[in-house]
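2024-03-11 09:14:02 INFO receiving multi-entity request
2024-03-11 09:14:02 INFO entity count = two
2024-03-11 09:14:03 INFO echoing inputs for audit
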Amino acid sequence: MIEFDQRIAEQLSEVSLNSAIQVRVGTSNAFMVTASVLLPLMQMFEMGGVYISASRGAAEIIQALEGIGISTERIHFIDLVSSGILGGTESQYDNITYVDSPIMLESVLLRTLYHIRTTPYERNFVYLDSVNALAIYNEGRMLAEYLHIFINTFRQRDVLSVIMNVPDQTPPGVLANLDLYCTDLVDRGQVVIN
Amino acid sequence: MIPSTSYSRDRCVTGVHGLDEILKGGIPYGSTVLASGTCGSGKTTLGMEFLVRGALAGEACAHFTATEPSVKLLENIRQFQFFDMQMVDTGLINVFDMDVLYSWLGMQKTSFELEDVHALIKAITDIVNTIGVTRLVIDSVTTLCYKIRSEQLIRDFLFTLGKKLATLGCTTILISEITSASENALWSSFGVEEAIADGIIVLGDIERMGHLLRYIQVVKMRGTGHSRAKYAFELTPLGVMMTPMLKWGSVTGQ
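2024-03-11 09:21:47 INFO inference complete, emitting structure
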């Protein structure tokens, strides 16, 4: 049974729609933190959104979320992983769009904007999972430029952006830029194992 | 020195997402714009969206197609969520097959001479005038010009056609096929179209680590200031969508 982090919900209740939240996670708590962010956004604030999955295939994330009772019907997934695996795009879910590669950053932005424009929900979020996964394929200065455009694009449109990263797997320059661009920080990057 | 009053030409607001912003309001009315691009770069889709957006605003639009049959073209634009077949039924969108036009004019020949070129200009401008067309797309001017053997005749054809269409208040997009959109490439097949046109919009692909990203760039537009940057673009059911190309990712092959 997963234990949701209630403090995240409290923190989210204080941010405005045009905020950009940096969510720092460790490798072991990434899913729990993701679930703790998504649940209040959809249930408490009745938001819809776009989930950009660069770390795992979207179908796997949907199954994991639904496995703990989080419905994904309000979310459209943009999957940057599965096209790189032959047969990876054969899925039963119709709320997934596949992008050929994580290096096609502009395509990711445009497809996200497209789904935000077509969503039936009044308030929306975009969840980027994750900066460190994008950093595997993209050079630091390009990624920093992208995040700058990404955050400002959604702030301008009153779409809440949530940017997840594992700090020790993210280039320092990119991390420094995230600190600068993001308006809020949810720091769960330091995992203490008892 | 800053002038005390600024003069701005009236614009044909294209309605294409991002393009009017790039053009600071739209294409100056009556302009002839060359949309040059490599295969699969989105030229025809851009041209069709220009027409459908015009029809949505109540303008009469015409498309002369020499590259694919009109039936196939109309099937392809059904993907647009904002397209309605009523636009065709009510005469707001008019699609003409060039082969049919050649047949009407008795011009089913391999090459055109001066009198053929004049007959073609007259036929196109008569259609534009009769229907009251304010937006026109010729797809493609390359295919059409292949039949005109002389460079001088191509120049005369495009110059006269552009002038007449401008007089009729028609804003025209001439689609041009090019084999490469790289920095040293020509923006047209014959090298003369780009000099005659009031504007040039280049569409191409940038290769980034083995993947092709579509881009659009306005390199020339008389009568308006405009961005000359490259924009990445996607073809979606909502039409063309654009965003500035990443500066660190716009070098071919990077």
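2024-03-11 09:21:48 INFO post-check: The radius of gyration of chain A is 15 Å.
2024-03-11 09:21:48 INFO post-check: Chain A touches chain B through 23 residues (CB under 8 Å).
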